[in-house]
Design goal:
The protein has a single domain, classed as Up-down Bundle (Four Helix Bundle (Hemerythrin (Met), subunit A)). It is mainly α. Helix content is 65%, strand content 0%.
Amino acid sequence: MENTQKEELRSEIELEIISTKGKITEYKEFTKPISPENAIGRVSRMDAINNKSIVEAAQRKAEEKLYQLLKMQESIDDADFGVCARCNNEIPIGRLLLMPQSRFCVHCASRN
């Protein structure tokens, strides 16, 4: 991978980290406990609980993405950066720019 591509990818990872941290903060706001003394109806409370569980799942997914992005940020200068973890072929720069946390090429990712 060329140095210009690595620099472009480095800045894309940094932007994605900032964006993901923002999403996690938003999700945490939406997953605060629903107080039982709030005067909402039983159906509305069930909807709120259901929505809360959906947002919690999105939060877990965003936290996993952040973890992967931070790992990628640390390893960007490694010799094997941008190489598929399964087949050892180079991951196209377009895929890395689109999904900087990706450790697999498209072919190997579809086999998971």
